[in-house]
């Protein structure tokens, strides 16, 4: 079960409407704060750019 302890939750925010989307990532697959990812937004009903915020539990600050 050790593989589950190395997970961090990144918060992704829609750049259009501001909707939040949690995304679990493994510790070795973390992205820098401010990383941009194209995802389907449930509010906008389209594929839009999401900006990644600091990870919960990693001690890193947001770079928005």
What does this entry look like structurally?
With 64 residues, the protein is mostly beta strands. The protein has one domain (2-56): Rubrerythrin, domain 2 (Single Sheet). The chain is built from one helix and four strands, in the order αββββ. It has a four-stranded antiparallel β-sheet. A hairpin with a 4-residue loop joins β3 (36-41) and β4 (46-56). The protein starts with a helix and ends in an 8-residue tail after the last strand.
Provide the number of structural domains.
1
| Uncertain ranges | 58-64
Give me the count of strands.
4
Query: What is the C-alpha radius of gyration, as a whole number of Å?
Result: 12 Å
- Helix fraction, binned, reads under 10%
Shape: elongated
Written as H for each helix and E for each strand, in order along the chain, the element string is HEEEE
Largest sheet: 4 strands, antiparallel
How much β-strand is present in the residues? over 45%
Give me the CATH fold name.
Rubrerythrin, domain 2
CATH architecture: Single Sheet
Total of DSSP H or I helical runs spanning 4+ residues: 1
Measured between the Cα atoms of the first and last residue, the distance is 34 Å
Spatial ordering of strands, largest sheet = 2-1-4-3
Text of the CATH class:
Mainly Beta
Mean pLDDT: 79
């Amino acid at each position: 079960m050790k593989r589950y302890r190395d997970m961090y939750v990144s918060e992704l925010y829609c750049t259009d409407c501001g909707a939040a989307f949690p995304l679990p990532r493994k510790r070795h697959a973390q992205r820098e704060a401010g990383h941009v990812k194209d995802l389907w937004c449930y509010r906008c009903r389209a594929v839009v750019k999401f900006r990644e915020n600091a990870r919960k539990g990693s001690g890193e600050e947001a770079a928005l």
